[in-house]
Amino acid sequence: EAGVTQFPSHSVIEKGQTVTLRCDPISGHDNLYWYRRVMGKEIKFLLHFVKESKQDESGMPNNRFLAERTGGTYSTLKVQPAELEDSGVYFCASSLAGTSGYEQYFGPGTRLTVT
Amino acid sequence: QKEVEQDPGPLSVPEGAIVSLNCTYSNSAFQYFMWYRQYSRKGPELLMYTYSSGNKEDGRFTAQVDKSSKYISLFIRDSQPSDSATYLCAMKRGAGNNRKLIWGLGTSLAVNP
Asked: Which residue ranges form the domains of chain A, and what is each CATH number?
């Protein structure tokens, strides 16, 4: 069974540009999460989808970040316009429906560098 | 104050040693306590979880939770070079649909042959 995949693995953009990150969860996983790790800091929760609905977006830093999950399958996270402080590793995770959510399966992450 | 505190190390031990990793936390609402392992350039992978207090053992790994002290531990027995990785503690509340994981910084572990 394929795990969580993320694309691209690494992105380097200039301040003010737009970047879109993609996550493909494990097939059949209704729950999808986005997390971010800034260098030297803890991994931070960004948001949680149940199918195509946003269940919890309390961690989204500001309105420059837009997450979507059309059709309840893959998800995209768009940053527009990107700022220097957006640099970090963006992880996507997924989990089965009906579980408590402690077992989340993570992708390898997208390393975003804003220059 | 951070909700979860974890010493980032690095920690270096000889092969075969017993490793002790730990985290402290401040939020008494946490009910699930997880240990994730992360290899370089990979995503975190769930190693063990404990619900509420108590001990849990899985092979060479033992997880302990002491809710009265707000302290959790992971012990690795007979450590192997393949155990070299970053170990992250993560916690979540137990109620409803709250699935947000709160993370420690992670402890970098090197097991030397």
From this structure: 5-98+105-114 (2.60.40.10)
**Chain B residues contacting A, CB < 8 Å?**
2, 4, 32, 34, 36, 41-46, 49, 51, 88, 90, 92, 94, 97-106
- A92: which DSSP letter? E
Full set of structural domains in chain B with CATH: 4-105 (2.60.40.10)
**Sign of the torsion formed by the C-alpha atoms of B61, B66, B67 and B71:** negative
What is the mean pLDDT for each group of 10 consecutive residues in chain A (115 residues)?
93 98 95 96 96 94 95 95 97 87 92 98
Substitution target from A38, A104, A105 for chain B, most B beta carbons within 10 A: A104
Residues forming a β-bridge with A6: A23
What confidence score (pLDDT) does residue A101 get? Answer: 75
Is there a contact between A109 and B92 if contact means CB atoms under 8 Å apart? Answer: no
CA dist., res. B48 & res. A103, Å (int): 9
Q: Would you say A111 and A12 are in contact if contact means Cβ atoms under 8 Å apart?
A: no
Q: Beta-carbon neighbour count of residue A58 at 10 Å? A: 10
Neighboring chain B residues of A33 at a CB cutoff of 8 Å: 99, 101
CA A102 to chain centre: 17
pLDDT (tens digit, 9 = 90+) per residue, B41-75? 999 999 999 988 889 999 999 999 999 999 999 99
Q: How many CB contacts within 8 angstroms connect chain A with chain B?
A: 67
